[in-house]
């Protein structure tokens, strides 16, 4: 699914509307895959991929799993997979993960779900319990960094939209 500038800046609704600065638009042209009014969803700098924190909201802005930390983690990881693939990477390239949860009771469900997606991948990870996230219905967020191994750099892999919780997982 190839994005152009017009459909990259279409993620309004995640946050209250703000003016998009010209530098954000330039970043899109230089290597970001997704952008919304608050910034890039993914940036590729050489063979490094940096993803914006992903939550229980699909890439169209629809909330998934209100009150269900496992379902929110599943949707967040679905987003991570798609964004990495669009940037020419894949889950096996993940090297750093930071997970934020709003309640210690969510730890097991969130970590188990993330572990399903990262089975056989051993990134450095940090887990934090925070007082809250940007929206009250979000109970978890995952921040991911990946590095494409030398020799595997190449053109960005094109992937289809895997936004909805109703789409096949394709793990």
Write the SSE topology.
Elements: H1 5-8, H2 22-30, E1 35-36, E2 39-40, E3 42-45, E4 48-51, H3 69-86, E5 94-101, H4 107-117, E6 124-129, E7 140-147
Parallel strand pairs: 5-6
Antiparallel strand pairs: 1-2, 3-4, 4-7, 5-7
Helix pairs in contact: 3-4
Structural account:
- This protein has 171 residues and is α+β, with helices and mostly antiparallel strands.
- It is built from four helices and seven strands; from the N terminus they run H-H-E-E-E-E-H-E-H-E-E.
- It has helices spanning 5-8, 22-30, 69-86, 107-117, and strands at residues 35-36, 39-40, 42-45, 48-51, 94-101, 124-129, 140-147.
- The strands form two sheets. Strands 3-4-7-5-6 form a five-stranded mixed beta sheet, with helices on one face.
- Mean pLDDT is 76; it is low at 1-37 and 155-171.
Please give a quick description of this structure:
By secondary structure, the protein is of the alpha+beta class. It is built from four helices and seven strands; from the N terminus they run ααββββαβαββ. The strands form two sheets. It has a five-stranded mixed sheet, covered by helices on one side.
Q: Taking strands numbered 1, 2, ... along the chain, how are they ordered across the largest sheet?
A: 3-4-7-5-6
Rg, nearest Å? 15 Å
Average pLDDT score: 76
Shape: globular
pLDDT < 50 runs, ≥5 residues: 1-37, 155-171
Largest sheet: 5 strands, mixed
The SSE string, one letter per element, is: HHEEEEHEHEE
Keywords:
171 residues; five-stranded mixed sheet; alpha+beta; disordered N terminus; 4 helices; 20% strand; two-stranded antiparallel ribbon; 7 strands
